[in-house]
Amino acid sequence: MSHPQQKAISNAILSDLIIDCNFPLSIVENKSFRHFLALLDSKYTPVCRRTLTTKTESLAEERRSKLKTQLSNTDHVSVTVDIWSDRKMRGFLGVTVHWMESDAERVQLKTNLLACNRFKGSHTAERICDQFEAICDEYNIKAKLDYIISDNAANMRKAFTVCFPSEQEEDDDAGDNLDDPELWHDLTLEDQQTVDAAMAKKQRLQCFAHTLQLVVGDGLKETKAACPSLSKLSKLSSLLHTSTTFKDIFDGEFGEHRGTPAAVSTRWNSTLRQVKAVLHCDQQKLCAVLEKAGHKELSFTPREWNLLKELVDILKPFGEATDLTQGEKVITISSVVPSVLSLNHHLEKLKPQVRFLSGLVRGLQASLKKRFLGIFINVKMVQSQEWITTPFSDTVYLKAAALDPAFCLLWIEPHVLVNRDIKAEVAQRVKELMLKRRSNLWLCRCLLKN
């Protein structure tokens, strides 16, 4: 059992099959797998499930210890926090840490999962805070936290006012819930005042992708013209996923690799992918297939077909912005300001061009300015008003964009829709923000790694 080859195969089963390929631990008890191992190396003695479990726990502890050492060597970290439910409706709390490591040659962005813990019971702010603090204490990062990124759930906002302050932001409707109804509890006036007053070094920032999801959701709610077309599209997709008879007819005309993905009600970009997929089909052929299968009522009229094309033209940049800010190996916060201002400019140009969905364009632009109000105020496209809360008002977004070589200040000229003198004021203010405090130098090093 101490032979190097014995150890190498056992370790490979654990790291390559159990961990990387997600095979169950019970595979080592499977007769066919043991026969395979015997053919692979007749001298190898298969490990039992209990031994493999012990080795898994030891490896996990070893990696936790290594991560603690890595985090002890950095002074600044940020984390993302999320709660979601799996298909069995079991709740989980996930915390991911982000930091920078530098050596003599380069600076590297590091990301690691700290915890993915089972979260039983109600998802109250107090319970979220308790579990989050326990995770921070385990890795000794509480004093190093700069930013906490979470979704817009009211209990998430409240959770981080106990030890961590939160930037001001508007209350989201209960209809914004993406996963679990228990996540969405409206703050009392007293709690909201606590949130608004608690401003200090550490801040909770809203998740950009989630906020953009809400913007598109707001716009689609205001678009009654698209409802008939999207309803037909939804029923067509349902047929393709539930009726083998219709699927055979459809595949006979368009091929087995053509279809429409199922839409997810809480992810607007799944609807965009669905629309794009159906538009790849020939309209007349699709109508003929539907009539042949006895579903003529789902046929798209020329007007509905053109409306779907216009919908794609409007929403495509929103999908690109969502993808841009979901990278794991690159800085993403630097793309927030350029993305928001570019989307606003995109909608502004579309206003005189749209034929069917002018309401969608207006709804998207109104929601964009409401949910990203702080950005528009910071670039002087909207006047600041003391009694209005300003989400995304943190100047870190401006500094991050300016320090990223991919953006610098190039976004000001085309997308800050004000006169030239005010644009010059915005550019000067961004430069002053970057030079204001020496403590910002670590951010410069992080973002200039590219």
Folded structure, characterized:
The protein has helices at residues 4-20, 31-40, 49-72, 125-139, 154-159, 189-197, 208-221, 227-242, 244-254, 268-279, 283-292, 302-324, 336-350, 358-371, 373-378, 396-403, 412-415, 420-435, 441-447; strands at 77-85, 91-102, 107-118, 145-150, 203-206. It has 450 residues and is an alpha/beta fold. The chain has a 5-stranded mixed β-sheet with strand order 3-2-1-4-5. α9 (244-254) runs antiparallel to α11. The longest helix has 24 residues, at 49-72. The relative contact order is 0.07.
Secondary structural class:
alpha/beta
Shape: flat
Mean pLDDT: 82
- End-to-end Cα distance: 48 Å
Largest sheet: 5 strands, mixed
Strand order, biggest sheet? Answer: 3-2-1-4-5
Poorly predicted regions are 165-201
Question: How many individual β-strands?
Answer: 5
Instruction: Give the helices and strands as they follow along the chain.
Output: HHHEEEHEHHEHHHHHHHHHHHHH
* Radius of gyration of CA atoms, rounded to a whole number: 26 Å
Roughly what percent helix?
40-55%
Protein name: Transposase
InterPro entries: RNaseH-like_sf
